[in-house]
Amino acid sequence: MEAACALYVKIALRYSLTGGVRSGLKNISEKIRLLLLAASILAAVFIIGGFFFSGDPLTVKDTLSHVMIRGEYRTEGGNWRPLSDLPDFYGRENLRPIYIRGHFSEEIEKNRIVMLRMLNVRLRLSVNGREIYSFGYAEKPNRYINSPGDVWHGFVSPGITPRDEVTIELRRVYAKDYDSPVKLLLENIYAGDKGELLLEVLYKRIGLLFFIGIFVPLLGLAELLASPLLFFFASKKIFLRFFYNAGFTFAAGGWIAINYDISTLLVPFPRVILAFEVICLYLASFFFTSYASTYMSGWRKRAAELCAAGGLSIFIMIAALAWGGITDLYRPMAFSTGVNIAIFLFAVISLVLEYKKNGDRTILPVLLSSVPALLGGIMDDLSYWQAVETPPIWVCMSFSLFITIQSVILIWEYKRGADAAARAERMEKELTESKVSVMLSQIEPHFIYNSLSTIKALCVKDPETAAEAVSHFAKYLRRNMDSLTEKRLIPFEEELSHLDNYFYLEKLRFRGLVELVYDLKTTNFMLPVLTLQPLAENAVRHGRSGGRKAITITVATERLADGWLLTVSDNGSGFDLEASIKGSGHLGLESTRKRVEYLCNGRLSVSSVPGIGTSVAIFIPYEGSY
Fold it and tell me: Which end of the chain is more exposed for a tag (fewer CB within 10 A), N or C?
């Protein structure tokens, strides 16, 4: 008998080792989460610090000079007018070529670099009637971006004096731009070293905002690369929130980082930068709406997901039209910004409706932080449409504020998830130990000895009954072994089958002194494994104590308005309930109570009167029995 118990103890230890492996994987997952949290904290500190500290303007060497041009302009077929009357040249009607003639404000020595700020234009520059420079004509056509780019470009001066006549021919590519291409060019002509121009633009125009814009998309890219690890270790909801937030961080950071005053001084691919800006615009709205949808439910969640997919579909449609030569990615920029702001607005409104519907407080910080991001996006778009002039710091602050708050939210969610995982692991360990204890209590040496002795006696008197008893005994042992690995709820019919196997052996042993009666009004529900049989065994073991010989055990079920009720009662000797709680005589009863509460949010209650009997009732709510 001791050998049999030792065998089952070894089995229990084997499953405990399997639990250790799972615990090791969770520890690895926790380390990964801590690394990601450290990155999020660093991002928050860096972004917030950027709003309070800015670099002092760098004193640029005298070798870099700002060159002005004085003269007049005309459009094709028009009259010459003073440059002081130069309009903004917005709109499709002003796509005609523009001609400028005049003189530079200072001499530009031979072999000195002249840098000009181009905004989606093609340009020819002549000195005294001789063309010395052209831009945008030599590049090969690109079906996705028709423009030569929003870029700094330059040429080597052949030696230009203030007396030389300079003629510029400009041809705009797009009818709509965020700034006046002609004025932007005339206000940004520099002679000198490209590196000094880079420092001039970086420190006097942009400052630390550029470095924030570089850091944020790099953080988002790192989070995107790390997100597949969470797919294996975190819940689906946490993984999706992290992935969508990482995608938004990357896309919004890319949008912030693109500042054409400096981007093309660092990256010599202006068309790539233009395409990247459009892609970031659509990806930002997609990831933001998808992230917001993880806090929604019902039709609001489905509508937000559909809206996010619709934004990507529009981008794919524009890319297809560009492939067909109908348009390019940047030309419908005004339309694209309007569409994506509408998607942002829809996501925020859906969050408001979700909060009003369910009152979930976890939505509130997401909602409050998304409003500044929405306003920043609207202001940036209005600036593109020339409706208002929006300082870049506003857009950077609004998006960075959202990213910072979401980083804090992720920290909080990870901490809450880690605490919940620790509690679940502790509870799982306790449940495993209780399962082992229950299983060993069911196959204790006395029960094995009594069952085998009964079967042995039947082998001589009634071999057929003995064979049937061996079959029931084997099924009983197998069910107890299977209970160690069974974590899901099982049908009530399976518990009835296990109870029948147990009572078949007990009836053979007690010869009519133990009766089992069923009063089943419903059997269509689920419950934890080893729930019914331990209750019946307690009734047999304790109901016959105190000199009581024959007992009847009744198993009843009933369907209530909010769940199922399972009752196991007997007319045995009963017991003192308070004394039993303090003692350890009802181990199976307590372990059943824990599993019912943890696995299906149910309740177990016991009532017992000495000399009259005991009744155990288990209530399983509808939402817990799935």
Answer: C
Helical residues (DSSP H) of 234-269, grouped into ranges: 236-257, 263-266
Please give the Cα distance from 55 to 408 (Å, whole number): 27
Cα separation, 451 vs 474, whole angstroms: 11
Work out the percent of the chain whose per-residue pLDDT is above 90.
17
Question: What phi and psi, each to the nearest 5 degrees, are found at residue 258?
Answer: -75, 100
Distance in angstroms (rounded) separating the CA atoms of residues 164 and 154: 19
**Angle formed at CA 298 by CA 293 and CA 299, multiple of 5 degrees:** 85
When mean pLDDT is compared across 96-110, 120-134, 140-154, 418-432, the lowest value belongs to 418-432
Cβ neighbours of 554 (radius 10 Å) = 17
Structure tokens at 340: 């994506």
Pair of tokens at residue 523: 């059997």
Tokens of 527: 């419950």
Dist. CA 420–CA 88, nearest whole Å: 60
- Give tens-digit pLDDT for 345-369: 899 899 999 888 887 777 888 888 7
Which DSSP string do the residues of 513-571 spell out, in sequence order?
SEEEEEEES----EE-TTSHHHHHHHHHHHHT-TT---EEEEEEEEE-SSEEEEEEEE-
CB 499 within 8 A of CB 507: no
- Cα–Cα–Cα angle for 54, 55, 56, nearest 5°? 120
Residue 544 to residue 528: CA distance in whole angstroms: 27
- Is 176 in contact with 99 (CB distance < 8 Å)? no
Strands 551-559, 514-520: pairing kind = parallel
pLDDT value of position 163: 94
Q: Which of 86, 79, 74, 72 is nearest to 183 (CA)?
A: 86
Q: Which of 536, 570, 534 is nearest to 551 (CA)?
A: 570
Buried/exposed 217-249: b ≥16 CB within 10 Å, e otherwise = bbbbbbbbebbebbeebbeeebbbbbbbbbbbb
